UniProtKB/TrEMBL annotation:
It comes from the Bacteria. This is MarR family transcriptional regulator.
Length: 281
């Protein structure tokens, strides 16, 4: 029992098992009942009445809910619901896509015939999970250490599933060596995490600009560009190049006057980008 936390073990159980484990006394749901409720909602493709006007097509094993919706049904505080969902996500039992005032929950379920396979098709799901972990770091809800631990945990879980499937196939072939495919998948998963971290780092730094004044660029769009969207798109492209490469030669703009003007728009430009990012959080 002392070493029970050291090994990753996958347990397959029918949804009926969780129905059996539910406690019938009282209105407040237990953690087991809350988890079963999430399974039930995801299997049914449940959409909360509060978000039915939002055009979102759900995939299998997904439900679209609000924190308040779950809190009311489970008789929990909203903060308790968020903490519970954080814990389930850290265990790899669900994934969240956070929207404005709602969340799409994808339950991690298996048919009993397959585990999480390290295939090209499923890599975006792993990237989405890592992105969700890092989103908490971007907004300051997780420390770098905590986010790193969660990323490492997600990698270990994915590798354990890949290795388990590979070992099963190897046993059938009379071999017990780690295949080149497992090594390749491990390299790709690590690369995916690095890519997500780099993207999250940019988002976190950009987030600092959300309270800066962007009115100067708005006035430039109206007065100097005459409200021409195409012209502003070209200007935005030049500004983005200037942000990422301050030594850019400024192709397509006058090197003297226009480049200095663009430099003066750097802070308003980052402010607009940061505010757009906040809207999608």
């Amino acid at each position: 029992m002392e070493n029970s936390q050291e090994n990753t073990t996958f347990i397959l159980a029918d949804v009926k098992v969780f129905d059996f484990l539910k406690e019938k006394a009282g209105d407040r749901k237990t953690k087991t009942e809350a988890y079963w409720d999430l399974l039930d909602r995801s299997m049914a493709g449940f959409v909360s009445p509060f978000v039915r006007k939002v055009e979102r097509k759900l995939l299998p094993n997904q439900c679209h809910v609000t924190i308040s919706d779950l809190a009311e049904f489970w008789h929990w505080h909203r903060a308790t619901v968020r903490t519970f969902l954080d814990a389930l996500e850290s265990f790899g039992l669900l994934e969240r896509t956070k929207l404005n005032k709602s969340v799409i929950i994808t339950m991690t379920v298996q048919s009993g015939k397959n585990a999480i396979a390290g295939t090209e098709q499923e890599e975006p799901d792993f990237a989405t999970r890592i992105g969700s972990i890092l989103s908490e770091w971007v907004i300051g809800k997780k420390t770098s250490e905590d986010a790193g631990h969660s990323c490492g945990q997600a990698l270990c879980q994915a590798l354990a599933a890949i290795a388990g499937k590979d070992n099963s196939q190897a046993s059938g072939n009379g071999t017990d060596t780690v295949s080149a495919e497992v090594v390749r998948q491990e390299e790709k998963l690590r690369e995916t995490i690095l890519e997500c971290i780099a993207n999250a780092a940019l988002q976190r730094v950009l987030r600092k600009s959300r309270f800066d004044n962007s009115s100067q660029l708005s006035q430039f769009f109206t007065l100097d560009l005459g409200g021409e969207w195409g012209a502003f798109i070209e200007t935005a492209k030049e500004l983005a190049e200037l942000v990422f490469n301050p030594e850019t030669s400024g192709a397509g703009v006058d090197m003297d006057r226009n480049k200095e003007l663009l430099k003066s728009f750097r802070i308003p430009f980052l402010s607009l980008a940061a505010k757009a990012q906040t809207l999608s959080d």
